[in-house]
Amino acid sequence: MKKENEAQIEESKTRLQRLAAEIKALQDQHQRELEDREKEAQSKLDAKETDLKVAHERNECALEEMRRQMREKEKEKQSQTIKLQMEFGAKLARAQSMSAKSHPQTQASAPHPQNIFKRKLQFIQDEKNKEIEVLRQRVRELEQQSLYGLMDPRLKRRKN
Q1: pTM score, whole prediction
Q2: Which of 49-53, 116-120, 133-137 has the least mean pLDDT?
Q3: Average pLDDT, stretch 88-107?
Q4: Which domain holds residue 69?
Q5: Does residue 107 surpass a pLDDT of 60?
Q6: Does 45 have pLDDT greater than 50?
């Protein structure tokens, strides 16, 4: 009986050692899998972050281009306004000198040339201001899209 007991004890010890070795192997395998998953998640996170940086840079470039275009349009409108003012001044002076030379009295029903040019100038200035406002609004929208586009994924990442 003693020998049988000792044999069973030895067999139990060897089984325990075998099971301990299996547990150790499973723990090592589990640890490797965890490390692989962690590396995979980190690489995905890095790729997403790179994509976001590229998108942000693209939006910044588009925004800068819009600003540049807005400045060019504004300069163009200003030069056009100055040109029209000069034309208006020249035509007004010509009309006044012709009016003074030819007839002291003009027809009462005819519109005054000065008023026509003033209205035309005012109309062009109003159009310029409207276009500038539209461009400014577009720039604001792009800036907000850029800010929201960068904030949203970061918030999602923190929640997860």
Answers
A1: 0.43
A2: 116-120
A3: 72
A4: 2-159
A5: no
A6: yes
* Cα distance between residue 11 and residue 13, in whole Å: 5
Total number of domains constituting the chain: 1
Give me the residue label for tokens 């899209």.
Answer: 145
With a CB cutoff of 8 Å and minimum separation 6, the contacts of 142 are 59, 62, 63, 66
Residue 41 one-letter amino acid: A
**3-state secondary structure labels for all residues of the chain:** CHHHHHHHHHHHHHHHHHHHHHHHHHHHHHHHHHHHHHHHHHHHHHHHHHHHHHHHHHHHHHHHHHHHHHHHHHHHHHHHHHHHHHHHHHHHHHHHHHHHHCCCCCCCCCCCHHHHHHHHHHHHHHHHHHHHHHHHHHHHHHHHHHHHHHHHHHHHHHHC
Cα–Cα distance, 13 to 6 (Å, whole number): 10
